[in-house]
From TrEMBL:
Its main location: membrane. It is found in: Membrane. Residues 18-319 form the CYRIA/CYRIB Rac1 binding domain. Belongs to the CYRI family. One of its GO terms (cellular component) is membrane. It is a lipid-anchor. This is CYRIA/CYRIB Rac1 binding domain-containing protein. It comes from Umbra pygmaea. Keywords: Lipoprotein, Membrane.
Amino acid sequence: MGNLLKVLTREIENYPHFFLDFENAQPTDGEREVWNQVNGVLQDSESILSGLQAYKGAGQEIRDAIQNPSDMYLQEQAWNSVCPLVIRLKKFYGFSLRLEKALQSLLESLTCPPCTPTQHLEKEQALAKQFAEILHFTLRFDELKMRIPAIQNDFSYYRRTISRNRINNMNLDIENEVNNEMANRMSLFYAEATPMLKTLSMATTNFVAENKTLPLENTTDVLSTMASVCKVMLETPDYTSRFNSEDTLLFCMRVMVGVIILYDHVHPNGAFNKSSKIDMKGCIKVLKEQPADNVEGLLNALKFTTKHLNDESTPKNIRAMLQ
């Protein structure tokens, strides 16, 4: 209790802090409708990650086909290897569109007046947990995707083959599944280093643009509040001791980094500016206190997927912490 009192009285009191129950939060009657809708999307997230993790690519078949352009058997082998992979990539892309809608439903619930973002997150913990789960999934998906260069190689081969259309007597029915317009959209999606994060950033930016009567702060404050709550939970033994699983610590770190990146993309001044409502120094410090294996990817995400880190307005000490 003494430590908890210290948390409530030290500098942290400038930032929102409460225990967000990422493990056990259950929807109230008021949250149920949105929760059910978002849950319908989230329950497919593990199978999407498993599918991505198992993605091996058709690199060898493509190389053989390119090196032997007159060998129709090898051309057919490459094509038959690539087509199921393209269908899988379409599934991942389709999931990103569903995730976008789910995020916007949550933002609608967590930003609506008269409650403040802090009140929303504290009272609607099941929705806050789902928001966190979307961010957690997003960082995991993008981490995996960055390690699989085969995705873009396979898709490039698919598009080249379709456009040349030189494989005679071969089944091109896949164009009914992935037509040119769909292929263009998928190509833009997979060209991004972090496609799911880009999807969430755009979804949040579009949400702000479409809700002109809602102040921008209502949205960015949800993000900064979530970052602050995660940071305080991570650095406070009284809170971390309430976690039943060590995985919740990593979950909390991923969510904190996810909302920082999202805030940095959506707020005009970004997350690193002195006027930012996120204690960036404190957040980075909390990460650096964790085992290096757990946080290397997260620190890299802050370095390479944020928008404003290298702005002149970013304090030098913050930039130095991420060198």
